[in-house]
Design goal:
- The chain is of the alpha+beta class.
- Helix content is about 45%, strand content about 15%.
- It contains 5 helices and 4 strands, in the order ααββααββα.
- Helix 2 crosses helix 5.
- The longest helix has 21 residues.
């Protein structure tokens, strides 16, 4: 019976410790307006160098739209696709090109059916060091690789803010 009491005491102590920690305020890094605007501007500028007009979306760590800009010219579909690319990159903490390759495995293919997930290149996670804080999605270039290059240029433009 003493083993039972010890186990009961240990589990009670663990529950108290867990509930005490749950009451502490969380401190998390997130995408600021300055970061989001720098990324959007950097991505647009990079694509414009090649005469490509795109839509760019940035989501924060919770997947909420933080900034969006649609250049003159991309089709209306680019708006929603850019947002979904940003969300997919944030949700799975990998580029959307990596996501496409990763979900080729039959056991993971169902992830492509999650609401708002999109299997097109052009989404890139936003990180401070190794900490995931958001995602950027670019849509409108002739390929997912070019969309991704523009997204990476946007992140590079915000590098000083992502420290």
């Amino acid at each position: 019976m003493s083993m039972f009491k010890s186990l009961l005491f240990a589990s009670g102590a663990l529950m108290l410790a867990t509930s005490a920690n749950a009451q502490n305020a969380l401190t998390e890094r997130n995408v600021s307006m300055a970061i989001a605007n720098a990324i959007v501007q950097g991505a647009i500028e990079e694509c414009q160098k090649d005469g490509i007009r795109v839509a760019v979306a940035v989501v924060d760590r919770g997947g909420h739209l933080k900034a969006f800009l649609r250049n003159d010219g991309p089709g209306g579909h680019a708006v929603e696709i850019a947002r979904r690319k940003a969300l997919t990159a944030r949700m799975f903490n990998r580029t959307t090109i990596e996501f496409v390759k990763w979900t080729e495995a039959p056991a993971l293919a169902g992830l492509r059916d999650v609401a708002d997930v999109i299997s097109l290149g052009g989404g890139v996670p936003i990180r401070v060091g190794t900490e995931l804080i958001g995602g950027v999605g670019v849509s409108g270039a002739p390929s997912g690789e070019k969309d991704e290059a523009c997204a990476n240029a946007g992140i590079a433009k915000a590098a000083d803010l992502l420290k």
